[in-house]
Amino acid sequence: MTVTTSGLSFEELVRASERRLLRLGLMLTGSVHSAEDLVQTVFARAHRRWSRIIELDHPEAYLRTMVVNEFLGWRRLLKSREIALAEPAEEPSGEDIGARQAQRDAAWRLLARLPRQQRAVLVLRYYEDLPDVEIAELLGIAPGTVRSNATRGLAALRATLSAEEN
């Protein structure tokens, strides 16, 4: 079913934003499958609210906010203590990807140790390249809280790396 308002259909917005939202979900969850579940859940909720979402100035930004909020609220992710690792490349290449894959896996493990809000702040700041003010609006917190979460998250990552080196 195509829901159309102001010339933009729900399907068009999904097609336009799906890859970016999946990348964001992957950075937040560390798992392709969890990212797909996260984005699918958001799209299902967005479809029910489509008439309101399409009236917004930036519906894609609203969907991004929904992805982050859904990630922060997922209770079933809290039950799992598994460490998700990045999936191997679909097609083999001529390069040796062992070291790169090891670094990627280590990064996922480090991010997975952080509290959810600190992880969200770091992903939004360094992966999505959002300024603190936008992150604060997206998460519904003060810009100072964004900065303190980023500082604490980076400090925790540094401490973990230092402990692993010794």
Automatic annotation (TrEMBL):
GO terms for molecular function: DNA binding; sigma factor activity. GO terms for biological process: DNA-templated transcription initiation. Residues 105-157 form the RNA polymerase sigma factor 70 region 4 type domain. It holds the Pfam family Sigma70_r4_2. Transmembrane segments: none annotated. InterPro entries: RNA_pol_sigma-70-like (IPR039425), RNA_pol_sigma-70_dom (IPR014284), RNA_pol_sigma-E_actinobac (IPR014325), RNA_pol_sigma70_r2 (IPR007627), RNA_pol_sigma70_r4_t2 (IPR013249), RNA_pol_sigma_r2 (IPR013325), RNA_pol_sigma_r3/r4-like (IPR013324), WH-like_DNA-bd_sf (IPR036388). The keyword DNA-binding applies. The keyword Cytoplasm does not apply. Residues 13-76 form the RNA polymerase sigma-70 region domain. Keywords: DNA-binding, Sigma factor, Transcription, Transcription regulation. Belongs to the sigma-70 factor family. ECF subfamily. PANTHER family: ECF RNA POLYMERASE SIGMA FACTOR SIGM, RNA POLYMERASE ECF-TYPE SIGMA FACTO. This is SigE family RNA polymerase sigma factor.
